[in-house]
Write a structure and sequence with these properties.
By secondary structure, the protein is of the alpha+beta class. The protein has 25 helices and 29 strands. Bound molecules: zinc ion.
Length: about 850
Amino acid sequence: MSAAARWYPLFAMDYRLPTTLAPSRYDIRLEPDLEAATFAGEETIAITVAVSVSEIVLNAAELTIQSASVQVTDGAVVQGSAALEAEDERVRLLFPSPIPAGEHRLTIAFTGILNDRLRGFYRSTYKDAAGASHTIAATQFEATDARRCFPCWDEPALKAVFAATLVIPEGLVAVSNTRVAGETPAGPGKKAVAFADTIRMSTYLVAFVVGELEASEPVMVGPTPLRVWCVPGKRHLTRFALDIGAFALDWFERYYGLPYPGDKLDMLAIPDFAAGAMENLGAITYRETALLVDEATASHVERERVADVVAHEIAHMWFGDLVTMLWWNGIWLNEAFATFMELLAVDAWKPEWKRWTTFGVSRAAAMGVDGLQNTRPIEFEVRHPRDCEAMFDLLTYEKGASVLRMLEQHLSGEVFRDGVRLYLERHRFGNAETTDLWKALGDASHLPIPEVMNGWIFRPGYPVVIASPEGGGIKLSHRRFTYLPTEGAETERWLIPVRVRASVKRGFVDKPVLLGTEDISVTLPAPPDWVVVNAGGHGFYRVQYAPPLLKKMAGALKKLAPIERFNLISDCFALAQAGAMPAPDYLDLTARFLEETDRNVWTALIGSLAYVNRAIPDEQRGDLETLVRHRVGSAFEHLGWEPQPGEDELERQLRGDLLRALGTLGNDTETQERSRSLYARYREDETAVDPDVLPALIAIVAAAGADSEYEEFLQRFKSARTPQEEQRYLYALAGFRQPELIRRTLEKTTNGEVRSQDAPFLMRALLVSVHSRGPAWEYVKANWETMARQYPGSAYRRMYEGVTALVSPESERDVREFFSSRKIVLGGKTLEQYLEQLQIAVRFQEREASALAGYLAKPPRAPRR
Ligand SMILES: [Zn+2]
């Protein structure tokens, strides 16, 4: 099905701008006043009018139009009047005489505000080392906020060339999408910075940043200078991003087979930033934690985050910027593809990070949402641009990247790459749709791509493959996986590329099969010792093994790849949540993993134990802590407290992860004691503690901490030397368990002490902790209006995910009551998803209560072999 063809004409009437004229070039001059938080602007837009018009409609929001005129081809200037339509975020320019068909120049003068909502043209503030406040003006336009900066045809298909000039105080710098073409004096103490023409591109990719900024030395990648920008004093934190940035830029040029489409590449760290980063062509903006990092003191996870985001944004320079989705329904392809490419590039940069194994965690998170009745297809109709805001979620990024990876593995890496090259070559400087990519991949592979892919893209949900013994082999069938009983799930079918690996007679059988409407019998030369379905772990489906197969697998864990062990745990726990596996059976299975060495598998194990912890009554907490210590203890003991020579990064990070689990979820007093003394040593000598262990120590000290630790952490948060240090101490504040300290942290989510980009996530952390969720929920109920006003939309939405941790029938009723009486709009199906996740947890609690109580009361033991 080609969705676009069906609904495109419909929208032109409702939400889209008239197609009677189109812009081809914007000459924009902007003069921001950072002190007054305002700006003045003038633009001249080259327009092509198809049929004579007496009015011109384009997008504008929160702008005041001073004047508007059209200079028609023959030279006459027609003055117009402007009528703003605030609701539709448009301005209607009315002219006394018709504008004839032809090429004309539209000139508009306007003023606007530098807002504090982190969108459009906004201001960001920071304090320097001496405590003095400074302001930066920055932009964030995706999806539809360019119209808050200058009147424009704010739709991705209406590409144009942009030539910007920024008039700014002498002492500041301005950065935009292209190189500076020239600087000229512009009145007392001011200069006009003119930028070179951009390529033809969409409005949402335009960027302006003005402030007191420092740049790294440029790194040349072929003809392209790559720089990192930051506020003064942080230039020493730019090296790592430059390294991955230079690698990725070069790697993508080779992969895509096309040169980088810009004339330079700047990456800028903005102190206040709503998303993680934004792929403005040639001027990528980031939140500080996603770009600036001190390699010597950051943990593996913190460095991986920077590498991921940098690679992701640079991947967009081609996929998104050079070739752009026709309309917002295509945003999934943009984001899924950049996520997929980010992983390919980071995996090529640091193979030892085993990035595709770690991606299992993200894939599982997407499956968590996509297993809900309230999920959605990856691609769906977006009528109003506003509807695409809720598209920036796990299903777009992680499910999207997962199904692309599944397809890539199905076609082979080279064939997939050739298809991508074909797609970019065909559509560069233009726009395209999902079907265009399938077409190109189909041309490269000579396979019917839409047949395989449509079920994964245009339908909600995903399958669970059921594997059972049959004769000497196995039988595979499937249905839709859902956590709650769902009508019709039994009969839903996909086309699933399945890989089966079996151990047979001391050898292996590795079989790819395409599972469709009919069940499949996989014959093997002899009855297998064990079988893995979804071998290699790339499939976006779960596997439910019949008990005899599961038993054999659990006895052969060392023969499985880490991603296969991860999937085993992730799938079995999902089945337990869905009521298809008793919780005690799942907990028994976790006892098989005492010698586990992969940190992703541990992420799944610890995550499931934390879930159980939220579902049990307070009086069983001690028993669960005992179980956590049993499961985690020996693996940690095996690693020891100190890094060993020859260890790789992943082992060091695993030490940190296990330590944190022991000291917080396991509430192990000995670990807490030793962590406190090790942290005390760190205060004397910062080199005394491994960077992968330090974040765990901070979390543990907080969990067992009192007033003095709280004061210290608060100070360290405020005077942090790196963005990562700031984040560690900030989120540690949510880990203190004393009621008075919880109250203090709650207040910080609304009193301005914490940036609005971070406060919603701090609140989310308070909501999900069993120690603070009660008071945190009361606080949200009392302050939600303030939060709605202060927090950026995307983060506000994420905060409410915390309600999924309020696991009790009474809380569930209270949460539903809260939302139904307030009409809080979170976009898309977000709210319904949170409510369903809460319902699933409460059902799990009710169903498993007595079995869990009995299981946890017994002393934990190692499994019988
Ligand atoms: Zn992206």
